[in-house]
Write a structure and sequence with these properties.
Elements (H helix, E strand, L loop, with lengths): L2 H6 L2 E4 L5 H11 L4 H6 L6 H12 L1 E6 L5 E14 L2 E13 L8 H15 L4 E4 L4 H6 L3 E2 L2 E8 L12 E5 L4 H13 L8 H7 L9 E6 L5 E10 L2 E9 L2 H12 L7 E6 L15 E6 L2 E4 L2 H7 L9 E6 L8 E9 L2 E5 L5 E6 H8 L5 H6 L3 E2 L2 H10 L12
Length: 406
Amino acid sequence: MPHNKLKDQLKIKPVGVEYLDQYNELLRYVFQVTNRELVESGYEDGEIVRAKQPILQKADVFGWFNAEDELISQICIYPCQVNIHGRIFEMGGVTGVGTYPEYSNMGLMSDLIKLALTDMREKGQYISYLYPYSVPYYRRKGWEIMSDHLTFTIKDTQLPEQVDVPGYVERLDIDDKDVIETYDKFARANHGSLIRGKLEWDEYWRWENEDERIAAVYYNENDVPMGYVMYWIADDIFYIKDMIYLNQEARKGLWNFIRAHFSMIDNVKGDIYKNEPIAFLLNDSQITETIEPYFMARIVDVEAFLTNFPFIGKAASFHFLITDPVAEWNNGIFGVDCRNEGQVRISREAIGECVETDIQTLTAMLMSYRSPSYLNKIERLKTDSKTLKILENIIPNDQPYFSDYF
């Protein structure tokens, strides 16, 4: 049957918990998650389905169904909160995206993405994050890279030397309240971070056997937790899942703790979720580091996002000329009047000079993944030199941090 006639027989509608089994079956097929992988992640038979039920209850899920009411294509919008340059935004986390292959190339996912963006806009989720299975595909839909995943390997002989710090380290369970509270302080102080509740922590450990993980928490001299490292040791390697710290004292204290394993390990292998290579911090910087794109972001509603964005200082007015391949409400002119410090007014008027770009580039710039000057240099943003300098001055330059997965 031709695709256009087959699509006429399909129906798009919300996916409720009554379709939980079909939701997970489609996910497992599309992402080829095997029973063996589930067991290795610590799940018993059927447990992954039960574990996903609270997410499905909390999220907005839309899908295409065939005439037999079978789910054949789906998208899930997980309601989250993220720190954007010190301000908490509602965020729509896109996950659970998939279509059975026999229904591909019919435009089903394009329709679901537009429906998802409309839903996010209505719910005040003015920015969206996702983990891309295909960067080119999601770029065509308006998302852009916003964070990196760095991995590193350090030989035992390259570990930082022990330094004196006033605090101490304790090994705790990964769900200890001090771990949870320390991350919350970190997330509220670091741009790009996810604010985690119980479900977000559950997702953080979804595909790992957390029973094998340990949290080493650094406390300052006043017994206040200031950072932690999530780790495990296997085959003479100290593996770091993540390390966060609120100040440099905590960073040094955590590396003291890692160095204390010198006689037990040959290498340290770890992950960093910020564009902050650690080689420069080491006396012996000849280590192995790799970098790859991690999460992508997309501004859902330009006018609302700009209205709430924490621009710095004051400057001459200008306007954006934006193109968006999916969300038509983002196409056009957005005037930015920031002449009064702390009072930015957004309009649909062409005030001042023009900054011409697309939704992907605007997102990368406002997330500070790439600077306005760089984006102008590679011809993804067009404006005059004076307005370019204004952008450099009023957009915070904090590098985004995001270590989660959903």
